[in-house]
Structure formats: C-alpha cells, structure tokens
Amino acid sequence: MIIVPVKEGESIDRALKKLKRKFEKTGVVKELRERQKFTKPSVKKRDSVQRAVYIQKLQQAEQAM
Prior knowledge:
Order of helices and strands: HHH
Radius of gyration: 19 Å
Mean pLDDT: 91
Low-confidence stretches: none
Number of domains: 1
Structural class: mainly alpha
C-alpha cells in the first residue's frame, strides 16, 4: 500500500503529484498493463533483443560524433 504523507497546509494537487510519482517508481501501473494480456516468452525475448540492438546503435552513433 502506498502512503503519501500530507503536510499541514499542503494542497491536494501536490499530494496527488507525489502519489503519481510513487506509482511510477514502483511500476504498479506498468505491471497491471502487462498482466492484461499474455505474451509468449519468445516474443518477450525478441522485444528485449530488439531494444538492446536499438540502444547499442544509439550509443555507437553518439560515440562516433
């Protein structure tokens, strides 16, 4: 359970912003979206390999400059 301490005189908007940040850091929303549908392990592996190749190309392009 995520708890957001609210200081006296602090606005609700600020507290909501803190709550959203904590949710993003914990990855709750991301995990919920992943669990909505099943993805085969081979597809997950393929995606991770493609992502790694893309990042490596970006790093090589950055070093070439």
